[in-house]
Design brief:
mainly alpha, 135 residues
Length: 135
């Protein structure tokens, strides 16, 4: 088994350990619902050590999958699609990334050039000065 298969197997084991008690066929629907709701209210530590919060729908889906296909059905699918963002867009994003990573983005009003034929900005007249400046 390679690293990807090991990870998929660990995820399936995590899913099984979570649903094991709730998937018991001896439970009534009401008992199962109560267990699943209790599982959904708690945080869980996933196979990678991260904290997970699961919805009731997810837990129910895992139970249905396990009933239909056993442990194999709990394995996550292989993702063979690759990058979803076209390479052209990724290259454009790299070009547009700020040269100084910690610097704030430029202010759009001052950094963009004025369109040709646009008159320069005028200073406010004294008639529009704030009242606090009046004696």
């Amino acid at each position: 088994m390679d690293a990807v298969d090991d990870r998929r197997h660990a995820i399936a084991l995590f899913r099984y350990s979570l649903i094991r008690e709730a998937a018991d066929p001896a439970l009534s629907s009401r008992q199962r619902g109560k267990l699943v709701r209790a599982l959904a209210t708690r945080d869980h530590v996933g196979p990678d050590g991260e904290r997970l919060t699961l919805t009731r729908q997810t837990i129910d889906r895992w139970i249905r999958a396990w009933r239909a296909g056993g442990f194999e059905a709990l394995l996550p699918r292989h993702h063979t699609q690759g990058l979803r963002t076209p390479e052209v867009l990724l290259n454009l994003a790299v070009e547009l990334k700020p040269k100084r990573p910690g610097a704030p983005p430029p202010r759009s009003r001052r950094s963009s050039p004025r369109p040709a034929g646009t008159p320069p900005r005028r200073e406010p007249s004294t008639a529009t000065s704030p009242r606090s400046a009046w004696p």
